[in-house]
Amino acid sequence: MIVFLAIANLFWLITLISWTFIIIKGPGKLPLKILPYDLSYFVRNGESFGNSKDSNSTESFDMLTSLSSSTHVLNTNTISPPEMFECDFNGLPYWCFQCSSLKPLRSHHSSVTNTCIPMFDHFCTFVGFTIGKDNFYSFISFVLSMEILLLFTCITIIIYSGIKNQLHSALIVFIICTGILAILVGNLFLNLIYDLKKGETNIESMGKKRWIKDIKINESSIYSNFINVQHPNNPKLRLIVKLSPMDRPYDKGFWNNLLLWNTDFNKFTSSIEISEFQNSMFSNQFKKNIMDRIDHGDYVVFGSQTKLMSVKL
Asked: Topology with regard to the membrane (predicted)?
């Protein structure tokens, strides 16, 4: 019994400390406001390309002499776009009006903290707090220690009852309640591991599930995700590529996916540094898949049309 109490109290202590760190650390926030990408140059060239197609002129990217040849001068309040970034169907990056900032680093605005949280995972009603980049490890520790504590308690009571050859009705109720809670917490932990394996946050995983459900209901649904990517052969153009629910843009393998949560985003001191790191978050396999789709013509030229309706996957 002394050993049981020692082990149980140890895991209770780990659980309480982990919960405390979840609150103290908080989910994190963007270290600074991210300046918008300067895309006007590519919009103008995309419009020229669209007009050249309408006029039955050559469609070869190597022959597009009508595109602007002048040197592109950045506006002082913008930065150059990275090689690729997530965008809407028009090819524009996501913008947070509350924070007056771009939303890179897989961030989402939290109404609880009233700020954009990098690598936003979810709001957990179980702990009553938002889970993001800064407190993700503490959340894993909390869930795992809670699961071990619940399982240890159930198994210990069952073994003790077997030794005593008796099982009080109160203990039966306790085992049932503890067992149900252990199943729920265990399911949460397995979902965390599965999301890490895929290189996705919980909110990204839930979004894909809604996306797949929407496609089953309506195959022509325009709900989708998109990538704005620099054309591989023509630096004057950018392309919009439609994604599928099966794409895993940030999957670099389980351990690399886990280590990504340990990144210190506060080390970034400029919008350019954040933009470059955001681009490095995409896996090489994903970048290769995007280039393969471009080779097969599954794209539209950014600026040449307002909606990506004709792309086939």
From this structure: Multi-pass membrane protein
Predicted model pTM: 0.83
pLDDT score of 190 more than 50: yes
- CA gap 210, 231 in Å, rounded: 31
> Could you read off the pLDDT of 22-80 as tens digits, one per residue?
999 999 999 899 999 999 888 888 888 776 554 443 344 444 444 544 455 556 688 99
* Integer Cα distance of 204 and 286 in angstroms: 16
Q: Transcribe the chain into DSSP letters.
A: -HHHHHHHHHHHHHHHHHHHHHHHH-S---SSPPPPB--HHHHHHHHHHHHHHHTT----GGG-TTS--SPP---TT-B---SEEEE-TTSPPPEETTTTEE--TT-EEETTTTEEETT--EEETTTTEEE-TTTHHHHHHHHHHHHHHHHHHHHHHHHHHHHHT---HHHHHHHHHHHHHHHHHHHHHHHHHHHHHHT--HHHHHHHHHHHHHHHH-TT-----EEEEE-SS-TT-EEEEE--TT--TT-S-HHHHHHHTT--GGG--SHHHHHHHHHHTS-HHHHHHHHHHHHTT--EEBTTBS---S---
Contact predicate 218/81, CB 8 Å: no
Q: Which residues pair with 131 in a beta bridge?
A: 122
Gap between the Cα atoms of 234 and 9, Å rounded: 64
Q: Quote the CA–CA distance of 142 and 18 in Å, as a whole number.
A: 5
